[in-house]
Design brief:
With about 210 residues, the chain is of the alpha/beta class. The chain is built from 5 helices and 10 strands; from the N terminus they run αβαβαββββββααββ. It has one domain: P-loop containing nucleotide triphosphate hydrolases (Rossmann fold). A 6-stranded mixed beta sheet has the order 2-7-1-8-9-10, covered by helices on one side. Strands 3-6 form a two-stranded antiparallel ribbon. A hairpin with a 4-residue loop joins strand 9 and strand 10.
């Protein structure tokens, strides 16, 4: 069994060896329920990848479009990457309820896309690997509510309904190549339900034991 403290560096090393999936970029999706720890894990994985860029889907979504942001993501990020160009996207300010000035996102060798819906069907063909943060939705939502406090209670009520509807219509977990579980210290990385590390058709089965990277 891989020691929990080495799971992320080992995962990073394997992701670097995957073929590019979106132009020159190895695009890695980090999906899971809100509150499951995606942002923290993506930050640690990015660090292990040598400061890989991270696109947070909270910057792409908005109050008006909690999940209806596919077209904007494709235009601002996926299509430029496919041409080998850096992307530019306008991050959304959740307090000001408006999009800010464009922000660059380089077409680095590995780029992480983190957030609920990172493994949606429209994005999977462009991913080199889809990771799913394994946590029961009720526990994840409770963590998120506790994190955001009473001020965001009404938002969370609406979010839970929207997220449940999204995953009912467009589930990510069945297509995940790898499952990530947060432990007391470190992480555990397990083979995902898809039986392969990615949804990208050009990616072959990775080396390693079938139960864990």
């Amino acid at each position: 069994m891989t020691p929990p403290e080495t799971a992320v560096p080992r995962l990073a090393a394997r992701l670097r060896r995957l073929p590019p999936s979106c132009g020159p970029v190895r695009l890695i999706g980090v999906d899971g329920h809100a509150g499951s720890g995606k942002s923290t894990f993506a930050g640690r994985l990015a660090e292990a990848l040598g400061a890989a860029p991270v696109l947070h889907l909270d910057d792409i979504a908005s109050h008006a479009e909690l999940f209806a942001w596919t077209e904007r993501l494709m235009t601002e990020v996926i299509e430029p990457f496919g041409r080998g160009e850096s992307a530019r996207y306008a991050p959304y300010d959740w307090r000001e309820h408006r999009f800010g000035p464009p922000r660059p996102l380089p077409a680095a060798p590995v780029v992480l896309i983190e957030g609920v819906g990172a493994g949606r069907r429209a994005l999977r063909p462009h991913l080199a690997c889809l990771l799913w943060l394994e946590m029961a939705p009720e526990r994840a939502w409770a963590r998120g509510r506790a994190r955001d406090g009473e001020e965001q209670r009404e938002f969370w009520d609406g979010w839970v309904r929207a997220e449940a509807h999204h995953f009912s219509d467009d589930p990510s977990r069945p297509h995940a190549g790898l499952l990530v579980r947060q432990l007391g210290e470190g992480y555990e990385v397990l083979q995902g339900p898809s039986g392969q590390p990615a949804g990208h058709p050009g990616v072959t089965q990775c080396e390693g034991p079938p139960a864990m990277w």
